[in-house]
Amino acid sequence: MGLVYNSTRNASETVQASEAILKGLANEGGLFVPSEIPALDRSFSELAQMSYQEIAYEVMKLYLTDFTEEELKHCIRSAYDSKFDTESIASLVKKKDAYFLELFHGATIAFKDMALSILPYLMTTSAKKNHVRNEIVILTATSGDTGKAALAGFADVPGTRIIVFYPKHGVSPIQERQMVTQRGENTYVIGIEGNFDDAQTGVKKMFQDPVLAEEMNAAGYQFSSANSINIGRLVPQVVYYVYSYAALLARGEIREGEEINVVVPTGNFGNILAAYYAKLMGTPIAKLICASNENKVLFDFFSTGCYDRNREFILTSSPSMDILISSNLERLIYQTAGRDADKNKELMRSLNETGRYTVTDEMRRQMDAFYGNYASEQETAQAIKAMYEAEGYIMDTHTAVADSVYRKYKEETKDGRKTVIASTASPYKFTRSVMNAIDPSYDNRSDFELIDELNKLSGVKIPQAIEDIRSAPVLHDTVCETEDMCKEVKRILSIG
User: Fold this and answer.
1) What strand order describes the sheet that includes 187-193?
2) From 292's CA, which of 43, 247, 268, 404 has a CA 20 to 30 Å away?
3) Closest C-alpha among 300, 346, 305, 360 to residue 324
């Protein structure tokens, strides 16, 4: 019997990996978690000799145990190919005293490509394995990057449709343009008059609506998700933390077994949770440094043990982190609550009903590996400018939040361990904020003029993803109120 997946809210709900990928969300709103975190069965000296694709197989085979070797290797080969503009798939670049793990070399220039380039292959393979006859409707909320990466991944994939909801006034102009110009007969993009949390809550409600599920099934459809609540998103993200350690070892930057720290700009908690899983698998990671922007709900949680979303929602220059309900934190809560589904369910009910919950001292002790801090808008801009002036290296706003928090951590703790910073997006995705940080006089230029200026300053080739949207027509212009999200889904699918 291979690894199975349990629901964080119902101990009796157990599924195979392929079923968890297809469902996306467990019943009662729970998330699927592996019954145990598997240990790596290759040494890092072995992994250090491998390509990204080979490491992906060594990690993912331990989680997706109902996939055959042939099936999994097909998914990996199909995902990590020339869609990425670097042969290494993820680049590890040393700047100042840290190593920036560049996760933005895929088709949509954000870290979401690392998982969303493989999810459609995992999904269609899972559908075949489980003899699914329904068309799979990928229903996703995005704070900016997931939407485009999911749309690009699922565009014109047979047997699927994808519907993406995004906050109309809560993403960067480039992020929005990437989404609304997306081609594909099966792609739908809808702006909502609300923030990301509103979009995420609306999507979760639809997943948990039994009447809607029946209507969908009768019409030949079933929902799945491309958000990081889907284990098929989370598992591929574990890979790049294992890879980054192996890459440091291969270069002779560390000795085998030497602990490193990892800094992750964090909103929905999926990316840093993947680093935590990599640590539990045996990757020598000491501290997981959780970097927040001014929506610092996670900083406050790690400081106090109380998660409280009852606060002002702030629109920042790092919009992918403008989140007050960090869905993937539930997986950490479940793990530190002794994998007690009832206890976790009680905390999530409190979050739903009161907007807050408090964990026990014992649970907090089990989160000792995490350190939380945040960067203000001013500190984020200062980090971009300082890095550019010191190294000629231009970070996007999310990476700058991580860099700023890393400086605070180092000053506070004097921890001298080598550190990997997850660089989650290309600066070309947030051109105006980045260029204004370097010199405020750029603000009177158009977005595409700024792209050309960024090219001159950085010497980094303008990504194809940006060139593609310069003249692309807008294909999606629907905007709705949050209460009408379900109505829009029914309209698209011609049901109800």
Assistant:
1) 221-224, 135-141, 160-167, 187-193, 478-481
2) 247
3) 300
* Cβ atoms of residues 489 and 165 within 8 Å: no
Angle at 375 between CA 115 and CA 329, to 5 degrees: 45
What SS3 class is residue 240? helix
Question: Cβ distance 127 to 159 under 8 Å?
Answer: yes
Buried b / exposed e along 266-278 (16+ C-beta atoms within 10 A): bbbbbbbbbbbbb
**Looking at the DSSP assignment, which residues form a beta bridge with residue 190?**
165, 478
The 8-class DSSP code of residue 463 comes to: P
φ, ψ (nearest 5 deg) of residue 208: -95, 5
Which tens digits make up the pLDDT trace of 111-167? 999 999 999 999 999 999 999 999 999 999 998 889 999 999 999 999 999 999 999
Name the residue among 184, 236, 226, 231 with its Cα closest to residue 80: 236
Give the global pTM. Answer: 0.94
Spell out the residues 6+ positions from residue 168 whose beta carbon is closer than 8 angstroms to its own. Answer: 191, 192, 193, 479
- Closest to 326 in 3D by CA, of 297, 362, 356: 297
In DSSP notation, 51-73 reads -HHHHHHHHHHHH-TTS-HHHHH
What is the distance between the alpha carbons of residues 19 and 17, in angstroms, rounded to a whole number? 5
**Closest by CA position to 383, among listed 363, 367, 403, 365:** 403
CATH C-level class of 91-109+236-463:
alpha beta
CA distance 310 to 31: 23
Q: Which residues are marked as active site?
A: 112
What distances in angstroms separate CA 256 from CA 167, 188, 251, 253, one per listed residue? 45, 47, 11, 10
